[in-house]
Amino acid sequence: xxxxxxxxxxxxxxxxxxxxxxxxxxxxxxxxxxxxxxxxxxxxxxxxxxxxxxxxxxxxxxxxxxxxxxxxxxxxxxxxxxxxxxxxxxxxxxxxxxxxxxxxxxxxxxxxxxxxxxxxxxxxxxxxxxxxxxxxxxxxxxxxxxxxxxxxxxxxxxxxxxxxxxxxxxxxxxxxxxxxxxxxxxxxxxxxxxxxxxxxxxxxxxxxxxxxxxxxxxxxxxxxxxxxxxxxxxxxxxxxxxxxxxxxxxxxxxxxxxxxxxxxxxxxxxxxxxxxxxxxxxxxxxxxxxxxxxxxxxxxxxxxxxxxxxxxxxxxxxxxxxxxxxxxxxxxxxxxxxxxxxxxxxxxxxxxxxxxxxxxxxxxxxxxxxxxxxxxxxxxxxxxx
Length: 385
Hints:
The protein has helices at about 40-60, 145-160, 185-195, 270, 275-295; strands at about 5-15, 20-35, 60-65, 80-85, 85-95, 100-110, 125-130, 130-135, 165-175, 200-205, 210, 225-235, 245-255, 300-305, 310-315, 325-335, 340-350, 355-360, 365, 380-385. The protein is α+β, with helices and mostly antiparallel strands. Strands 7, 8, 9, 10, 11, 12 and 13 form a 7-stranded mixed β-sheet that branches. It has a 6-stranded antiparallel β-barrel with strand order 14-15-19-18-16-20. A two-stranded antiparallel sheet has the order 3-4.
C-alpha cells in the first residue's frame, strides 16, 4: 500500500509551572490518503498510520510497526513503539471523506522523559551582550569600568571550549539591560538578528571592594581587602520568548592590588590573581548551569535562504551538524489561551531534508526525496529528529 502523504502536522507545547520544568506536548496530526477502488477503510487506516508515525517520530519515539492502535482507532494488528517519552493517549479527532481521498486528524499527548535528552545532539546557539555594572561607582577601584565586556567574552570562551549542549557563538558589542517586561520582545529581535536560538541577558549586581578594619590589639595584622562579585543571568528562547534559565551567583575573593592602582580588565595580572581565579570558577559554574538547562531542549536551526530546492540554514559544524543528517522542517506559532497559558504550535512540513554541505556555522539541505519544498521561506526552522 502506498504511504499516505502528511499535509499538515501541528504540535502544541503547553508549559506547566512547577518546581521542576515539566512539559506536556500535544501533537495534532492530520493525514490524507487517496481512496482506491472505493476502499475507504484502507485509506482511513493509511492516513491515520502516517499521521501517528510522524507525530511520534518528532516527539522522539522509535516506531517499530505502524499497523494499528491499541486503543481501538485501528483494530487489525498491533501498534508498537519504543518511546523515550510517555505516550499518555492517542485519540481520533476527526475524519472527513472527499470524492477521492480522506483526511484523518489525531491527537497524541506525550510527556517527554529525561531519556529524550540523548536525542538532541546538536549544540544550541546562544547570543549575549556585554554586561553592565549596575553600581558603576564600584568599578572605580582598579578602573575596571569595562569588566563586563571582558566577562562576556570569558563566558563565550568557556562555552565554546567546554559546553556540551550549547555554544555562545556571538557576543554583541554593546551593553544591554532591558526591563523584565521588555526581555521577551528584545529576545525575539536579537535572536533573529544574530541567528541564535537563545538570548542570554546578564548584569553585574555587585562589584564592591571591602577592607575590614583590624582590631587595635592585632596591630601586627594588615588590612586585607576582598572584592565581591554577584552576577545575574536570564536566558530566553528567541522563537517563543519564554524564559528557559535564570540564576544569580556570587563569590568573594581576596583583592591583592593597591586600591588606587589601575588595572587592565583583560590582563593576566588580574586573571592570574586570587580574584581572577575565583571569577573563572564562577564563570565555569554559570556555563555548566546554562548547559544543563538546555540539554533536554531540542536544537533548532533557522532557514536563511531558499535557492530552488536547496535551503541554507544557520547551524553548521560548530553545532555538530554532519553531512547526511536528516532534519525536519517546521514553522512555529505562539499564542495564549483564555487563562493566559502560553502555547506553541509546530507546523511540520511533509518533506524531510538531508544535509548536503556543512560549513563552520551554516549548512545546505535538500529534500530527501527530491520533492519540492513548497511554502518554505527564510525564518522557518529545521530540527534534529
